[in-house]
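Handover notes (outgoing to incoming on-call)

Open items:
1. DUF2116 family Zn-ribbon domain-containing protein: sequence verified, structure written out, both below. Nothing else pending on this one.
2. Nothing else urgent.
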Amino acid sequence: MPTENTKRLCKECETPLNGRRDQKFCGDYCRNTFNNRLNEDSNNYMRRINNILRKNRRILVKLNPSGKKTVDGIIMAEEGFNFHYYTNIYTTQKGSQYIFCYDQGYLKLDDNQYMLVHKQDYVK
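DUF2116 family Zn-ribbon domain-containing protein structure tokens:
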């Protein structure tokens, strides 16, 4: 805790601070710049993963405009679908596992076939 004689400085630009005792930045610009620099590495990683997930979802939407369709896995791969990234798995009472990218999903069938589905409201 700084004493009264100690000058408090902005964590980004080191400008002297006036005002609240718990103030850390001179303004929004310095606060945003500081936090963006602090989180830069994790943001790049997360941005890359989110781009893959969004691309997967776009591919599923493109291949499944009606809400339910069976397609070959090769078609999905040719479109650029990455099977390693998904947002969640839904397991039915019978044990089938639907893999989802947000609201678009698929169920692996036999012979490299996939049934594409759109998440229903009752699926949590």
